[in-house]
Amino acid sequence: MTISTAKSAFWKGCRDSAPFVLVSGPFGLLFGVLAAEAGLNVAEALSFSLAVFAGSAQFTALQLMQEHTPTLIVLISALAVNLRVAMYSASLTPYLGDAPLWQRACAAYVTVDQSYALSMIEFERRQDWTTRERMAYFFGTNSLVAPAWMIATVTGALVGASIPDSLGLDFVLPIAFLSMIGPMLRTPAHVVACFVACAVSLPAALMPYNLGLIIAGLAGMMAGAQAELWFARRDAKAETRG
Amino acid sequence: MTGPEMVFDKTTLWIVIAGLAIGSFGLRFAFIGLVGNRAMPDWVMRHLRYTAVAIIPALVTPLVIWPAPTEGAPSLLHFSVAALTFAVAALSRNVLLAMATGAGSLWGLMFLFG
Fold first, then answer.
1. Residues A82, B27: contact at Cβ < 8 Å?
2. Closest CA to B50 of A58, A214, A235, A185
3. Biggest distance spanned by C-alpha atoms of chain B
4. Is A174 helix (H, G, I), strand (E, B) or coil?
5. ipTM here
């Protein structure tokens, strides 16, 4: 029965994603708190999370708006942080590409790190699944995480304004960003990209309108891409030598 | 009580929210919705892989070297907290552990030397 297997795929996605609530919950809470600190009310903070639904982009935009960065640069930087979801979208296409358009549009909205990562593992394992079951699993992975993100944002925004300045909240966002970098350092090329971006960002900080961020980001991306080629060539050489 | 002071105006806020909503949906819909099964050129994918790992460090480094709490004066306290957080993040690959370490050491050091 297609319907019952689609249902069980949905619940499997739901169960597999449960641990990620422990990650998205605190992050949503932090976003709510920092949004409130920046002067957003609860409705504005929730609209932000509902409309954008991309943690790192939301944090980036919040930080840059507080530095009075021109709006265009806020948008470019926050979207650049989120460019990886375009890659997710590309690699999900072989599995979900023949679903109806409205389903693909809904799936696009909930394409985030954990739904992508869980789904790619499961889709490769379950070659027998139809697109319908895959789509059900994909939505299942978001059935807890997305509501958790929204509820946490609201909770954070409610308590945020009452947290005293003396707690040093203006350094919590840098700590959150630094923590997020950890899991991204998957290969030596990622490490190269990270450190080149850090090094370039300091002199580039002298540029007006936070343009230096984009320059340093591009430098890091190019360094990462070149390092990837270099490491691949080195490995190929080592292999031919035996 | 008027609440915390808004540091940017509401129009900017809503332009950013709307722009990011359209932009990030566009990025997600680009391939799954529009492009279909066509493959991207290798060099594009190779650069896309490193966007987040380049932009976030580029954003955070100046915030560590010239921290907001001291109004930009380099501060050993904030630098130490940042270095510790980054070390835990890079070694454990655990976002929550790194955040807890960072926040704990920030408040611990502020309490001791604040």
1. yes
2. A185
3. 58
4. helix
5. 0.84
Q: What is the pTM for the complete model shown?
A: 0.79
pLDDT digits (tens, 9 = 90+) for A165-206: 777 777 888 998 899 898 889 899 999 999 999 999 999 998
pLDDT at residue B2 is higher than 70: no
CA distance A58 to A61: 5
CA atoms within 13 A on the CB side of A58: 28
- Distance in angstroms (rounded) separating the CA atoms of residues B85 and A10: 36
The Cα–Cα gap between A121 and A71 comes to 38
- Chain A within 8 Å of B99 (Cβ-Cβ)? yes
In angstroms, the Cα distances linking A166 to A169, A170, B33 are 8, 10, 47
Of A26, A88, A198, the CB nearest to B96: A26
Task: Decide if A204 and B58 are in contact by the 8 Å CB cutoff.
Answer: yes
Identify which of B103, B34, B31 has the alpha carbon closest to the alpha carbon of residue A90. Answer: B31
B37 shares contact with chain A (CB less than 8 Å): yes
Q: Helix, strand or coil for residue A5? A: helix
Q: How long, in residues, is chain B?
A: 114
- Which amino acid makes up residue A218? L
What angle (nearest 5°) sits at the alpha carbon of residue A115, between those of residues A148 and A82? Answer: 90
> Contacts of residue A195 in chain B, CB cutoff 8 Å?
57
